[in-house]
Each structure stands twice: as C-alpha cells, then as structure tokens.
C-alpha cells in the first residue's frame, strides 16, 4: 500500500499536511514521524518501495541533512525515496540535499490549496508514473 511518511516536528505543519491530504482525492496513507532520529530507526526496521519520506530539514537534535547523510552511508537504506520538504530555498541546502541522496527537493507551499496540489502531484508522479526498483548492469 502506498504511503507518505512526513518527517516533521512542527505541529502546525503536520496539521496543515493532514488537512491537505484530506482534500486530495488520491492521497495515500499518511504517517508522521516527529524527528529525523525516528526516521533512522524506522528505516532500519522496514524499507518499503511504496513509501515516500517527506523530510523537513530544520529539526532539533538531528537535521534533515544529517539524516540524509546517515541514510546514504548505509547501503541498505540509500535507495529509500526521500524528498526534502522545507521552507528553505537556499542553493547550498538544495545542493547538499541532492549530494546526500535526496530524490527531490520541494519548498513548503504557502497555502493549503498549493499543498493539496503538491500532494496530488507527488502521488501521481511517485506512485503512478515512476518505476521504482534497482537495475542490474
């Protein structure tokens, strides 16, 4: 089953994300992890190819970039679909996120209608059109 895992520490952002998903006709299941450390623990337990992780960059204890670095260093985890989801539009944050294995970098929208549209687009692209898997050479 398709699932979006929102890795976010801000209760307001979590609430808005859930509201936008409720408005989206094709939204997958949503799970919330409130820290990057929770992401690392969950990833070690279960890697699911039908799961997308939306990872906030600015969190206490461990930032999203630190989490990406940790995931990239573990061969079993570096194929996860991790999309950075942040208020940052800093070129250095974006560059570093991609260098650390982020599959995409999305700026948090400023309205619930834009967020709903983003969720629809994410859902269509990653779960309908994108082919996920490893390719042997």
UniProtKB/TrEMBL annotation:
InterPro entries: CheY-like_superfamily, Sig_transdc_resp-reg_receiver, TCS_response_regulator
Keywords from the named record: Phosphoprotein
Modified residues (4-aspartylphosphate): 56
Superkingdom field: Bacteria
Any one Gene Ontology BP term: phosphorelay signal transduction system
Annotated Response regulatory domain residues: 3-123
PROSITE patterns, A to Z: RESPONSE_REGULATORY
PANTHER family with a match to the protein in the record: RESPONSE REGULATOR RCP1 (PTHR44520:SF2), RESPONSE REGULATOR RCP1-RELATED (PTHR44520)
Protein name: Response regulator receiver protein
Taxonomic placement: Bacteria, Pseudomonadati, Pseudomonadota, Gammaproteobacteria, Alteromonadales
């Amino acid at each position: 089953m398709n699932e979006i895992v929102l890795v976010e520490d801000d209760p307001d952002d979590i609430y808005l994300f859930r509201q936008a998903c409720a408005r989206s006709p094709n939204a997958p299941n949503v799970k919330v992890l409130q820290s990057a450390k929770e992401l690392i623990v969950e990833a070690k337990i279960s890697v699911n190819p039908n799961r997308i992780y939306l990872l906030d960059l600015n969190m206490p204890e461990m930032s999203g970039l630190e989490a990406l670095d940790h995931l990239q260093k573990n061969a079993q985890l570096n194929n996860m679909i991790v999309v950075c989801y942040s208020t940052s539009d800093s070129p250095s944050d974006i560059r570093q996120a991609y260098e650390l294995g982020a599959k995409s970098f999305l700026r948090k929208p400023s309205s619930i209608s834009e967020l709903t549209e983003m969720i629809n687009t994410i859902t269509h692209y990653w779960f309908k059109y994108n082919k996920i898997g490893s390719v042997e050479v």
